[in-house]
Predict the structure.
Amino acid sequence: MSLDDPRLVELSEAAQEESPERRRLLARSLAVAVAGAVGVSVAALFANAAVTTALADSIADVAILQTAASLENLAIAVYSNALTLAPSINGTDNPFVAKFLAMTLKQHADHLQAFNSAAQSLGGQPQTDLDHTMYSTVVTPALGSLKRPADVIDLVLMVEHITAQTYAKFAAAVGEVAALKPLASIAPVEAQHAAVLRAMQALLGGGAPQLITLPPDLTALPAAAGDVGFRQNSFYPTSGARSASEGTVASVPPRASGTTS
Amino acid sequence: MKDDLQISERELLAMTKSLEEMHSDLFPRVQHLLVGVCEVTAGQAARVAAVSRIEHSRRNFLRGGLVTAGAIGGGLALAGCGGSTTSNAPSPAIANGSDLKMARLAASLEVLAVNTYSSALNAARAGKPLEGLIPTALTQFATTARRQHQDHCDAWNAMLQSAGQVAQRDPDPKLNGSVQTALGRVRDAADVAKLVLTLENVALQTYTNAASVLSSTIAREQALTIAPVEAQHAAILNFVLGQYPVADTFVPVSLARIPSD
């Protein structure tokens, strides 16, 4: 069989029309076919169920990592927009709130880089767009009601809680260690963001914004401040996790007008 | 009949509180088990779907006639396919021997945490060395954290017992001695917070590291949904100590305990 063989040409053309992951699969098939021309047992190769499973793992894991990256892009967009609001709205006249929003934005940028690096290490493309499904259903409805710091905290808390749940669920589903490690080491960090935001939310709601400070005045903190950040669950829930497919590079639709990244 | 059911508002409130406590104690564990069962099924379905997509590609490939291409050299073909050598997909099966060793280690860390929080709370009681020195917010924190660690311990012990093993009732022997020594030196709230922060970080990092080595879906999910809760405990403790609550962008694993330690 030569490289001009119609079957190879057909296969190559098909690869151009497929999704990135499918293209990668077909490209590998093409490489194997060429190897076959010099005497490699293709049948033996494809009879190997373990290889098939590993490849499926890799493809599914790339999609999961891209969706995770799309959530980080969304978080970056939300925090960036929050930081552009007036201090009376985003609460940054409080030094701790200002530091928290800025530090958390930077941490999400680092998370984005980690997910994209992992996706690329598995042969996928980096995700540079945000999760538009979550943006339109979760973020957009809240944007119109950002009138005070508690509103901003409610919004970013929602984002953090969803991302923590999503990564915990994704980490349990992936097959590649390269995918598992960033998910497992980032999910708890998003949960920490959520815990701190819940405590801030409670102190704002209780009319005690002055207690949001480092170091805290422990004698003045109400008892409930001690556990409000985490008392809801002994096991972090995953029922609010996003779909693994909604942020893949292939499935992200063109940017809708009115959203920013 | 109506008279038989009459109760005072006070009694009703007491009964309601009692019911809430029962619910709070029992429901997380039941919910965790149910969610685990559902998500294992969903995770399996996703993986089966991914494998099915690959199998479909393989059939198309074979229909192209390329099965005739080669005869020998399976090793070269495998290299060309790039099947992952770092795949660590969780098995849906019940935890194996290695997972059970990790479950026992995890349970021993949880016993240590429960015991340490109990000792600290006892020391803060009337007539005890720390009476009046532990702020109410920290007492509330310790009470809830202890309950959650007990829930975690129960979950790991349930896994051990379902495999026919005895439950782990003793604290981690490697850490217990130094913790007891530290408890004897505790003089104020900061000392308590520093001690339990160390335990929370060890547990968090142990679970984060374990996620990469646990082979059963149930054990991995358990570690991945406990780790964020330990991380939240650590965030609040850092805040109590006047330290930035989310200092790590990624959870490190340098403090992680492993069964062979």
About this structure: Chain B has two domains: 9-60, 97-240. Residues 9-63 of chain B form the longest helix (55 residues). Residues 1-7, 19-23, 25-85 of chain B have pLDDT under 50 and may be disordered.
